[in-house]
Design brief:
homotetramer; 235 residues; alpha/beta; 7 helices; globular; ThuA-like domain-containing protein (chains A, B, C, D); Class_I_gatase-like (chains A, B, C, D); Trehalose_catabolism_ThuA_prok (chains A, B, C, D); ThuA-like (chains A, B, C, D)
Chain lengths: 235, 235, 235, 235
């Protein structure tokens, strides 16, 4: 059983009525409900938000966290660098990190990728279809060969990230674009998964397939024991 | 200057009027024209076809070939295994190999990939848009961020190949599918590029962008000197 | 709990007294003992050998096998191509495959790699030290940063395989060579692990660290559900 | 012809007699001599050091630089973050970056890798032998299957970097360690090569094989045209 911490900026939901209508208790609560209600995989779920001391990500919290999910958008710059350092360090030690949608521009993701993580976008509410390009990947467990989200914000290529270790999903957009929507990385002993869907004005995190993906991803990103990471001078 | 051999099955063009109307001298001739007329990159081009002795791929021909292009469709099984052995051996020694469209099911490609190379398809003549997902790759030199082919056969995921070393193009199809359309591999000292476009009933190989890609790919796949590939028992 | 089939050529042990002294019941039995006695991971283990009908690898056996281990050396050519087809097909469907030592030249490995799988070697009985270069990998669970085998056959680079998806071990040899000793691949939905140690005249498979690696590798290579691998014409 | 800028911290050579004896004009001058004297590849070479304004890496200098080499050791922290930003940005735009030896801990390398870049080390002056594990790679052009450096500082695994896109060299050390000594990456449109040899108290950069590698690496890392890196909102 993985201990999961869902981090949410939690701003749009309190500032914008349209967002509050979709996610009245915050995006983190909706994601938490999805993970907590999974009948196949047992997760221990908690949440943390920007306004909490240390953004809710104290050393103790991170120490106990197996997998951290990250949703942010308008306040990336307000995330304290000391917390980013801590998240990076914990990932390298083995904590899983799942970065969601607009989190592509978050400090922890950019720090771990080493690139701008830029992309193209258009907020048009058109249809997205996610294709499984790696049907043997555990993050695809239980999915059909593709699934649709009827209304999404479009993200288009190029996506300025390092070539993924493994690409699980590619999105097709009604407007004519494609996007590498599910990208797996390892950094140090930690597993990272970037998952594109999740805009604040659409109920993406209530979608069954999206919930299946997130639950699978938590399972996949959970730490294994590994062997010692010993560095420095040797005799 | 690379010496290029374009291999074509050359059956459809002689059996089917519709194909002959598009490629009267064979797909190989149209591809050869494109490469020969490139003003930026200088190639020495020749062709070979199934009906020739050794399918035109004698040891001498392969020895002199820097990059081999391969188009086949209905007669994959008629390609002699001894020639496949020879092609594989030359690729491992350093010869480049560019596999086109329905060549995904050719013996040399399946041999070098180790997988079924299966995919989904639909011959509907709808539009394909190829997106450059790796704008830093030399095979994308001189292209825009995407380009369109107004009428193509659709190829859809999953594509049963090993994860590419580097993915250059992803295709968007009007009918709702995506495909990893430009896949780079190295096997031994040889560079391989799979490029999806190229159906026999559409004039794909007259398209300027497609010609740009093939010319770039020949340049990219050309052998480098490397260091010795010495195997066996050591003292 | 994974169902494991250990395949062994089982020739050296019956033909050569020195080998019989080390592996009186066959290499497969010693490997089976190691897996069966693992206290941390529960495996269901059986064995198969060259001389059995279908080399012990009938469709039923392979259908029930989650992970296949493969040891062969002097009789690679005697393995029937129909069985190789079957093994390849099952791997692509999801069965794990662990290839041991001289199995680098086995038909199933060469088939799935698409390369010669050649290397350099010297049978000198000198020391090998395996370093974990990927301490975050589950195959390294519970190991120290390195471990030694006091007497081994040397395998040296270059090793003519595709670049591994992930490299877990690199070997240091007393005589001055290095080797990529633990290489992970995915082909289709199947996970492959090549593990170098295991010569027939040294009791390598009785070594605790080697046993730990094999048990971890079985766990890692076990199939996941994934999503459908549907190919062919679409409406 | 690539325009190359060799950056050197240039401290040890002015503070330590032993280092000055090996590199009287600075490590950068010795590297520059090697590149300038290459008879096979034509480079335009200049140098830059820490004490210069902007560390010699103004926007103009970087704009004109095709490939930047980086040697640093004791003063990594004195490198201004604004210059690191500039280097990162230029790499993502396509500038090649070759990081040497103790540069593994430099700010630009850590920034682009996203990891600690830690390793094990021992300054014992023992022999290193570098094996070419990828004989088809252009960085290995003209080398034998291995080459030796009679006296080096040892670097050992684990090396906390992302899995290389391609691994060219693995080092064997007399004292019993191994190291991934030649690691290729792409970040954005830029090519990165980490090359291990190069300690300040050994004349490593006068070695013919090391010079061959650096010259090949400059050639390999030089920018290609690529296609547009266009990001942001689309209509």
């Amino acid at each position: 059983m993985a201990t999961v911490t869902i981090w949410n900026e939690f701003r749009h939901e309190r500032e914008d009525e349209d967002v509050a209508a979709v996610y009245p208790d915050g995006i983190h609560k909706t994601i938490a409900d999805g993970l907590s209600n999974d009948k196949e995989i047992d997760h221990h779920v908690r949440t943390a938000t920007l306004e909490e001391p240390d953004h809710g990500l104290t050393e103790d919290v991170l120490e106990e966290t197996d997998v951290l999910l990250w949703w942010g958008h308008e306040a990336h710059d307000e995330v304290d660098d000391a917390v980013v350092d801590r998240v990076q360090e914990r990932v390298l030690e083995g904590m899983g990190l799942i970065v969601l949608h607009s989190g592509h521009y978050s400090k922890p993701f950019k720090r771990l990728m080493g690139t701008t993580c830029s992309l193209q976008y258009r907020e048009d509410g058109a249809t997205e279809r996610l294709w499984v390009v790696d049907p043997g990947h555990p993050i695809a467990d239980g999915l059909d060969e593709s699934f649709e989200l009827p209304q999404t914000e479009m993200y288009g290529e190029p996506f300025d990230v390092p070539e993924p270790d493994r690409l699980v999903f590619v999105s097709w957009f009604e407007g004519g674009e494609v996007f590498r929507s599910g990208c797996c990385y390892r950094r140090g002993s930690g597993r990272l998964f970037y998952f594109r869907p999740g805009h604040e004005t659409y109920p993406i995190y209530e979608d069954d397939n999206v919930r299946r993906v997130l639950s699978n991803a938590v399972d996949w990103a959970s730490p294994t024991d590994g062997s010692p990471r010993t560095f420095g001078e040797q005799e």
